[in-house]
Amino acid sequence: MKVLDGLDAEEFDRLMEQFIDREDPDAMSFEALDEAARRQLAEIVTAQVEITGTIRGGQIVFEQPSDAPILAHGNQLVIGGLHLVVKLRSETTS
After folding, report:
1. Largest Cα span, the chain
2. Can you tell me whether residue 55 is helix, strand or coil?
3. Sign of CA dihedral 34, 40, 42, 44
4. Distance between start and end Cα atoms, the chain
């Protein structure tokens, strides 16, 4: 049974506050809590960002996007706490 199916973020927050304030340890199952947390994370990832780059000297060089929270420097992208380094290899290299 999906207890939290269809909740928006405000309703989820309200239920979490009630859960924290309750003394009864069985007020919400861990499965329901896990499902609610996964749904919230899935809803957060909704933005699509396009990154453009060119190949220079056998290396990709990204352009800095003007409207995205991404830092581009050469073949590196910094997105929040993620530091992504893109390396290219030739098709003949396995």
Report:
1. 63
2. strand
3. negative
4. 48
